[in-house]
Each structure stands twice: as structure tokens, then as C-alpha cells.
Amino acid sequence: MSAEAHDDLLAYDREHVWHPYTSMTDPVLTRLVTGADGVHLLLADGREVVDGMSSWWSAIHGYRHPALDEALRAQAADFAHVMFGGLTHEPAVRLARRLVDITPAGLDHVFFADSGSVSVEVALKMALQHQRGVGRPERTRMLTVRGGYHGDTFGAMSVCDPVGGMHSMFADVLPQQVFADRPPSSPDDVPAWESGFRELAKRHAHELAGVIVEPVLQGAGGMHVYDAACLRVMREVADQHGLLLVLDEIATGFGRTGTLFAAEAAGITPDVMCVGKALTGGYLTLAAVLCTSEVARGLSASESGVLMHGPTYMGNPLACSVALANLDLLESLGWESSVARIGTGLRSGLAPLRRLSGVADVRTIGAVGVVELDHAVDVDKATEAALDVDVWLRPFRNLVYTMPPYVSTDEDVARICAGIEAAVAVG
């Protein structure tokens, strides 16, 4: 690409293209990607950088994987899309069966959505319609915890942290949910948190439809890791008060935290589970909502008799086909050992950063590494510092973190840790 073409694209991008969480009148700096292969992104300025973000946690097998490329080509040769209303197709049916097989026992029904946020909307509707179907229409609120993030659509925003989250400016127009304290990291702090959570649920049980949380790891709300025992408390509380337990596994699913699904760390089965992000290996947008037969029966007994949702691109054949190939790779390449190996590299590579000025905490779980600062990150400076050592990171708030592709080598992980160190040093 010529320098003139490069500059023209970036100039138009800056003037007309809105990027996530950015100002249109004062846009942040963007870098032009011209290629991607394995764990590397090729930038237009000639730099080849290790992607420490897995394209927002989705590209777990890296880029241009032959098996995933072929899955797309093969399905495109048959048909790329067909409406899911009144029609079905083999990739969707096979993927539904696969998800039922690999998720916690009892999640027997699958609704395909076209994004993570939409899957959360569907899960909330499931909870509300289920309560109507079992004769409790007054139960219209959700119980959740502070520090959570579930998406950017209105229902999803309502169960995000209402104070410290990204959507506090919309608080006056969102449904008012019930928020418990953020679950603690230390087992020593679980009993006190449990007491408060149980009391809050008891006080509001008459108006609650369900509990929704990100299990074990809260993502965009602050990359907070908490004790799995808290999930068992939530399961007990939900059962005690007739609530549905909804687990948002969009970020945690498919091995990221060390178990295939984070619910397994607590040995529980939710009533409803959302999955997305890594489902297609970063190739196409696709999410799914799974629920138990009890939820399906209750929902079907509501006055509509049907789940009131139906995305145009629901069950897209291309996305379902690449998702199946992605799950094949996840199994055949041994995700457990890959995640464990990456976790070991992140722990050893990031531990020395505790001594740096401005570092408040360093934590890891599975293939996730987080450095928390005692101040807000200068995103532009931190990003460029990481790029100077050939690593792509995208810090936010006071966090510099990584979720590497599972195919990252030990050398790649060491490089990512060096990039985080560079970002922290200037951030």
C-alpha cells in the first residue's frame, strides 16, 4: 500500500468512522491492519505485532487457521445464509447438539443470537417470561453484583454496574435492578459477602425474576477475579427463592479461565447460560443462550406461548459451520494444556511488575493476565509503548491486561508480558 493510500484511509476513518467507546469529534489514534496470520497482526506501517487481545478475547486459535478458513469456504459453496423462521439447517442443528453436549448437564435447549449483548437480552426475557409462565408476573427485576458488564444494549446495560460501569449516564432511563456487593477474591471474605447477598435476595425475592452474573471473572467491568464459592451461594439463593440463575459466559467460556466453562469451577449448572466471543474463533459474530427444560416449560406457559425474540441472522450457517470447526480445534489441540501453559507464562512474566511504581495489583486466572494501576491509564501512550516492543494491547480504565490466543508460544507470551511492562511504565 502506498503512503498516500495509507494516509487517505486513516484520514477518512478519522473523519467518518466511529470506533467503539470513542469520540467522533476528538477521535483516538487508530492503526491500519493490512493482514493477520497466526498470533500476529500486520500493520500498514510494516510492523508485525503479537496480538495480546485475541481480538477482544475471541480469536483463540489466532488468524487464518486453515481448518476455520476451510469451514467457511465449504459452507459458502452451499449457502451463506437462510432465515431461521420456519427453516433449519445442518450446521445449526449440529452446533446446538455440540453445545448441549459440552455445557453443564441439564442445559438442553439452545437459542442462537447474533451477538453477546443480544444473548443477554434473550436471557433476561427468558427469566421474565418464565416467571410469568409460572404465575409470578410481579417478578420483573434482576439481582446482580457490582462490577459487572453484560453488554451495551438497554437490557444488558441495566445489569451492568450502575455507578462505576460504562453506562452510568443512562441510569435514569434503564430498568432499576438490584445490586449486591462485588464478590470477593479471598475465601476469607466469602462468609461476610454471603450474608449480605442472602439478606438482599430475601428482602427483594418477591420482585426478583433471576440472578445474572459473569462467573469467576468479571470482564470489562474491571477484570475482577472472585472465589468460585460465591457461585455456589448464588445457586442456593436462586433455588431458595424461585429465581433463575443466569451465567454470562460470553468472556469466560471455552476454556479462558481454566475450565471449559467457568461454572465448572463451582460445580454448578445455571438455569440459563450465555456464550459468545470465542464461539466462532473470532471469525464471525455468533452467540447462544442455553436453558434447562424447566425454564423452557415455564416460558412456554406465559401468555405469548413463545420466546419473544428472533434475530434476522439467527443461526447463520457460515457462523455455525466455523463454530463447529472451532470447537473441533479446541478439543483436538488440547486447550487445557495450552491455557495452563499460557497461565504459567503470564504468572512468571507479570509477577515482577508488582514492584513497579503505580502498580496496585497483578492477577491471573487461566489464560488471562491483569495489571491494575492506581491511576487511569493513558491509553494512547500505553498502546504505543507496547507497539514499540511489537505487541498489540488495548488497556482501559486503570487496567493493562491480556487474553492471548491459545496458540501463543512461550516466546509470544514472554513478548506480551514485555509489552505489558512497557505499557505500565508509561501508562
Automatic annotation (TrEMBL):
Q: Report residues binding substrate.
A: 56, 149, 277, 310, 394
Q: Specify the protein name.
A: Adenosylmethionine-8-amino-7-oxononanoate aminotransferase
Residue positions binding pyridoxal 5'-phosphate: 116-117, 248, 311-312
Which HAMAP family does the protein's record reference? BioA
Co-factor requirement? pyridoxal 5'-phosphate
Query: What Gene Ontology terms for biological process does this UniProt record contain?
Result: biotin biosynthetic process
**One Pfam family for this entry, by name?**
Aminotran_3
Q: Which InterPro entries match?
A: Aminotrans_3 (IPR005814), Aminotrans_3_PPA_site (IPR049704), BioA (IPR005815), PyrdxlP-dep_Trfase (IPR015424), PyrdxlP-dep_Trfase_major (IPR015421), PyrdxlP-dep_Trfase_small (IPR015422)
Q: Name one GO molecular function term.
A: adenosylmethionine-8-amino-7-oxononanoate transaminase activity
User: What does the record give as the reaction this protein catalyses?
Assistant: (8S)-8-amino-7-oxononanoate + S-adenosyl-L-methionine = S-adenosyl-4-methylsulfanyl-2-oxobutanoate + (7R,8S)-7,8-diammoniononanoate
**What is the source species?**
Nocardioides agariphilus
- Marked site: Participates in the substrate recognition with KAPA and in a stacking interaction with the adenine ring of SAM: 21
- Alphabetized PROSITE patterns for the sequence: AA_TRANSFER_CLASS_3
Domain of life here? Bacteria
List the transmembrane segments. none
Localization annotation: Cytoplasm
This protein's pathway reads: Cofactor biosynthesis; biotin biosynthesis; 7,8-diaminononanoate from 8-amino-7-oxononanoate (SAM route): step 1/1
Q: What EC number(s) has UniProt assigned to this enzyme?
A: 2.6.1.62
